[in-house]
Amino acid sequence: MTPxxxxxxxxxxxxxxxxxxxxxxxxxxxxxxxxxLFSRRGxxxxxxxxxxxxxxxxxxxxxxxxxxxxxxxxxIVNQLDxxxxxxxxxxxxxxxxxxxxxxxxxxxxxFDQMAGALALCASFGAEVLDxxxxxxxxxxxxxxxxxxxxxELLAAYRVDQLHRTGLVALPRLTTPPVSPASAEPxxxxxx
Length: 191
What we know:
The chain is built from 4 helices and 10 strands, in the order E-E-H-E-E-H-E-E-H-E-E-H-E-E. It is of the alpha+beta class and 191 residues long. The chain has 2 domains: 6-92, ACT domain (Alpha-Beta Plaits), CATH 3.30.70.260; 98-170, 2-Layer Sandwich (Alpha-Beta Plaits), CATH 3.30.70.
């Protein structure tokens, strides 16, 4: 049974994506082979995040967000499974995981805008990492929907630099409660 692709927001409207968590041996060239597999087959990678998973650095976890229109999930999994250094492949279901993304941004602000910029950061839980009289560097680790909303409001300021890490996800330890009276999805900012 192939899981339904999940939807992630985008500036061009709603796009459908598959999110895969791939455990691989942490060896030279593995990331290149995984990324090459996608590009050779014309699969559009929306986001890619990778890092070692244990202190010994024997394994790495790659979180890949791929455009569902460019690639059927079964084809992606079959191709990844053929790579010798791939240990485990999991399809991430939005309701069963905790998702996070990290944003770093340097915002240019006039002196009279500084209080408003800091209030905006505080309202989203963003942390100020560095500041001068005319610039602020902030970080926000949050659900991608919250990062998107924060970026939209940052447009009121001069964004000098902005970097997003891409999505990472882990399975939930507990199932979120669902009220029978409410079939509406939970607030994505609370994730």
